[in-house]
Amino acid sequence: MGNDVFAEIEAREQGLFQLLGACPVVDVTGVVSARGAGGGKSRGEELWTLHFEFDAWRIDGAEVQTQALTIRRKVTDEQLRSFQETIRPHRILRIRVHVGPEVSADETRKALLESIIELDAPDAELRDHAKRMQETVTHEDGVFGALTLDRSVGWYTAKTAWKGNLVKLNCPVEKPEDLADALRTAHALWRDQDRWKQQIGDFAVEELLPLKNDNWLDENEAEVTADQFRSRMMLDAVTVYPDGSFEFWHNDGDLFWGHAILIDGNLSEGPTGADIPG
User: Fold this and answer.
1) How confident is the prediction along the chain (278 residues), in pLDDT tens digits per residue?
2) In the chain, which residue ranges form alpha helices assigned H by DSSP?
3) Which sign does the torsion angle of CA 217, 211, 6, 23 carry?
4) Distance separating alpha carbons of residues 240 and 174, to the nearest angstrom
5) Contacts of 35 (CB under 8 A, 6+ apart)
């Protein structure tokens, strides 16, 4: 089953590259998004897929478009590093690309990179857009106060108290209008902190304490009790989503040698998953 999934992803990506490669070549000037350039590689592949996004862009001589344009290209390790150094957040680039067909307003148009023509291209309208991209964006909430948009990840964040301790609240949203739904998830958790703290702790102990005692004990370390496990977990951050799901991220107190303790779930079912990423 797992190999079928990877094969399906690879086939879908190959199909996209073939589609884009058959599209017309045009010169495009655009503002690199706050995320900059990244890369991904499927299992067994030698080349990386470079990807970055224009937050605003124009085909030479046309009007500026603010529907995002995602650009891809197959690259080597060395090329990926070079492109990442060049394609910096908020930079205005003029590039030659195969631009894919138009898509609906809530989708991202796609393109295949041929070459970078000009760095820091002169375009007054796009330069103004780049300046606006770097302005601080906040949202005032009656419970959490001011949440600030971190454009590099598309999250609104705030520092707030959970059971008397300061934690980070993260609200990842695809669209600004999703923030209200994500905050409803947070409000539901914060209204009933005692119950949720108990449920999260119970689930962590049930799922991860046997793992600790079976596989993660230091030499001469005694088995950890449920109470000790709970006391060493320290909540760092809570991530909430518009669909009612959540993630509780904990410092592990060296239970798992510095790995985080992640408990995820949703408002209707409670905690459903436990992991030690990092």
Assistant:
1) 445 656 676 778 888 899 999 999 999 999 999 999 999 987 778 999 999 999 999 999 899 999 999 999 999 999 999 999 999 999 999 999 999 998 887 788 999 999 999 999 999 999 999 999 999 999 999 999 999 999 888 899 999 999 999 999 999 998 888 999 999 999 999 999 999 999 999 999 999 999 999 999 999 999 999 999 999 999 999 999 999 999 999 999 999 999 999 999 999 999 999 999 97
2) 2-21, 77-86, 124-133, 179-191, 193-215, 226-232
3) negative
4) 13
5) 52, 53, 89, 151, 152, 153, 154
CA torsion angle 120 66 151 183 (round to 10)? 170
What residue spans in the chain does CATH classification 2.40.50.140 cover?
A: 2-131
Q: What is the Cα–Cα distance from 199 to 236, expressed in whole angstroms?
A: 17
Collapsing DSSP to helix, strand or coil, 23 comes out as coil
Let me know if 139 is exposed, middle or buried by CB neighbors in 10 A (0-12, 13-18, 19+): middle
Return the residue matching tokens 């601080």: 136
- Side chain identity at 51, as an amino acid letter? H
Cα 265 to Cα 14, 239, 244, distances in angstroms: 34, 11, 9
Fold of 2-131: OB fold (Dihydrolipoamide Acetyltransferase, E2P) (2.40.50)
